[in-house]
Structure prediction request, 688 residues.
Amino acid sequence: MQEKRLLRVDLSAGTVKQEPLNPDWVKQYIGGRGYGTKLLYEELKPGTDPLSEGNKLIFATGPLTGSNVPTGGRYMVITKSPLTGFIASSNSGGYWGAEMARAGYMMILVEGKAKKPVYLWINDDKAELRDASSLWGKDTHETTDALLKEVGDPKARVACIGPAGEKLSPIACIVNEKHRAAGRSGVGAVMGSKNLKAVVVRGSGSFKAADPEGLRETLKAAMQKIKENGVTGEGLPTYGTAVLVNILNQLGSYPYKNFQASQHEGAEKHSGERLAETFLTGRTNCFACPIGCGRETALEDKKGEGPEYETLWALGSNCGVDDLEPIIRANYLCNELGLDTISAGGTISAAMELYEKGFIPREDLGVGPELKFGSGDALVYWTEKMGKVEGLGERMAQGSYRLGEYYVHPEFSISVKKQELPAYDPRGIQGIGLTYAVSNRGACHVRGYLISPEVLGIPEKLDPWVTEGKAQWGKIFHDLTAAIDSSGMCLFTSFALGAGDYADMLKHGAGFDLDADSLLEAGDRIWTLERLFNLREGLDPAKDDTLPVRLLKEPIPDGPAKGKVSRIGEMIPEYYKLRGWDEKGVPTPSKLAALGIR
Amino acid sequence: MIRVSFFGMVRGIVREKETQVEAEGTVADLLEVLSGRYGLRFGEKVLKTPERELQLILILNGRHIEHIGGLAAPLKKGDHLAVFPLVGGG
Ligand code: SF4
Prediction:
């Protein structure tokens, strides 16, 4: 196993020190999301206010981050979420994670609060806190450029927050290399609450495989599968994620205007096909990635990356907006100001519905444009206000749930555990609704991407209208994803690879004693520990493992999925049972014993 | 008449976004007609071997054909078939 360490950063004391990792935890929880969860579970005092000095912020790489396995460049940020009050666990790509791993760290644990703004500069073994007062208030692009200049090493990588994180917006993200984000659950606000503007890292170490010969063979097979698979070999490289817009819209499960409908006539105008004909300028990929799903784009006055499918929907159809230009502009603003695009879109759409229904009075908008569905001007203007936390934007920066609560209509927040829903309507695609409802970090599609079997037909074609069998599929997907997120690889490889492939890579790459079954068991253990964390923080399954009333009671009004509502009630009891939880959704003592969780 | 829309790289092969087809019978029959119209490249993509067929996502009136009878799914006047390449992830 790699001799990686933990870096403990105490911002209150102004100290940094290295510590060894706990080998038992590595065995049980692998690294990344798993080890980070265990670390948070053990170290965080229950009931801690997420934005207080007492919260802990963990940057976590997996044992394969920084290696030459395909897509081995991911990292996670784990903390207690200011958005949900439960676990936050956000994944990002790019190059930052690989740099951190190459500097020799599997974990960076940040605790306390700095007296004034600082950034953390890690150069291999050396790590120090430096003054960041002059950067406070700057956006993520300015910050990145300034820090690269300051540390004087163009190969260093920067992860930082923008004004949204500084001003403690619970939908603020952490942005690395300007365009990649640990997006969800408000991890950026936790960083802001600690007065930590950025983490800059440079690592010169190289990856040493536990069994180089075995790894070479494993990689050959894995690369072959990735190349030959229709999705990873052709679909994602050619069109990125944006090509999903038309598919979901054809299925009538592409939420429109804050989920008031689920098909959008103007969707073609912001589809992946249209993007390719207009603003697309190139492709990008993350560290060691043979797939390369990233898109480079340009407007007349600006260049950037994305928007991805989720963003096209969140800032597009969900706000009733057809055209690409304002969507791209709002997407750039989110990256610059440090806002999660899904939650930003979900909040603007909720604000539009609240305004159109008369619950947000005109005077609260100040001089801003009316919050009308379909208005590109409103989209761009209010994204900026939200990112800068100004005017009504200050209220919106609290996320859709708190915004709705303030205007006494939280039901217009389409969220689970206060986190905004992604781009698939769970009324027309039943299984993904289960993932949204039970996901430990609130509504999320990448905790278990059931869209793969339910829409794309991979690895099997499951009928999206049916609930039968979905609990079982859900559990397998949830467990596998937890393991992948702990390894340091990108979830998108799972279109082509299976549990056995990941186990092989962890085995030959990092010396783990794993096979397909024990890998999935590790995933189960990680998922269950996240659940225990949430229960300790006051999760009430009956109230929290559910979907917004609209999706349970208001049928899709037209299109192919007309008349459908989500039937999560048919899946959740079975899901709990399969997990070895009691009927209330609490892990049983025997299940915990079987997983070796104390 | 059946309305057929093309998406993603399939558009590049057939060089149009949409067409109308006089077809009867099943989705398989319709694909036969389309292969005749768009030539070898389309035909290979769609029909040549069962594996190749999996490289497309076919949505008939908003339903993946797999859940309404597969290639044997019957067609009726006014139907809409959307033809996508195999893609993923978001
Ligand atoms: S598949 Fe896309 S998101 Fe995943 S590592 Fe590659 S470029 Fe990054």
About this structure: Chain A has three domains: 5-202, 237-420, 430-546+567-595. The longest helix of chain A spans residues 516-536. Chain A touches chain B through 41 residues (CB under 8 Å). The longest strand of chain A covers residues 105-111.
